[in-house]
Amino acid sequence: MPPVLKTLAAALALAAAGTSHADSQFKLLVLAMPGKYHYEYIPIARDSLERLAKLHAFEFTYTNKPAVFDGDLKQYGAVMFLNTPGEELNPAQRANFEQYMRGGGNAIVVHRAAITPPNGWVWYEKLVGRSVGPHPMLQTGVVTVVDKAFPATFGLPDRWIWSDEFYVTTNPYNVKINTVLGVDEASYDPTKIWPGQSVQGMGPDHPIAWYHQVEKGRVFVTTLGHNGEMYRDPQYLGHLMGGIYWAVTGKGQAGKGQAARP
């Protein structure tokens, strides 16, 4: 290739790289590890997140390797634990993630990621904001919008027919959360669970998605998202994208400006 063409090609490559970088609003880290009951969702969720990333102009790293938490987390606008609880991280990786949150990092916790052994990593339990006990079998119920002003509810009806495992939770550390979605226990049987377990419902106050502040960062939690087909559902993906958007930017709440850091 003549020198002039080489120079032109290099310039075009740099311009393209610069445009791509400029168009990317943020980077999202997604940890999605296969488990006994959660594995078929992985390629489906990756494909859907890739489409969301293209649509909303962000980058994402999708991995099943916790070793990514050994590296520089500050490059990410948020870290998503997708059906993968924090217990998968070793002590050094946990410390690195805690430091990331103390520095203003943000987190998204999805479904199975909210379940962690009691007293195994108390800081992470507090980050989730609730502790999950025995949970009902997957059933169809009515999800209710509690906070219409929060981005993860935009596009959802006030009462939304959805099929999932509606986790029953407790609050052993008295963490204050802001409920986004609840579930109407009259619309399903909250005592119908796996053999060998027993549970009672939570009554009218049964949060299944929420947000709060942790350290200097924002945390969005949704306990919805049990099986793979859910990650093809436009309303569920809109719910998830709303949580990602708020966690990364602190923006989007109706009637509010950027969320203040604690």
Would you give an account of this structure?
It is a single chain. The protein is of the alpha/beta class and 262 residues long. The protein has a domain at 25-132 and 170-181 and 204-249: Class I glutamine amidotransferase (GATase) domain (Rossmann fold). The protein is 27% helix and 22% strand. It is built from five helices and eleven strands, in the order H-E-H-E-E-H-E-H-E-E-E-E-E-E-E-H. The strands form two sheets. The chain has a nine-stranded mixed beta sheet. A two-stranded antiparallel ribbon has the order 5-8. It is globular, with a radius of gyration of 20 Å. The chain starts with a helix and ends in a 13-residue tail after the last helix. The model is unreliable at 3-22 and 257-262 (pLDDT under 50).
Top-tier CATH class of one domain? Alpha Beta
Task: Assign the structural class, choosing from mainly alpha, mainly beta, alpha/beta, alpha+beta, or little secondary structure.
Answer: alpha/beta
* Beta-strand content bin: 15-25%
Percent helix among the residues?
Answer: 25-40%
Helix-strand topology string: HEHEEHEHEEEEEEEH
How do the strands of the widest beta sheet line up side by side?
A: 2-1-3-4-11-10-9-6-7
* CATH topology annotation of one domain: Rossmann fold
Low-confidence stretches: 3-22, 257-262
Specify Rg, calculated over alpha carbons. 20 Å
Mind telling me which CATH architecture of one domain this is? 3-Layer(aba) Sandwich
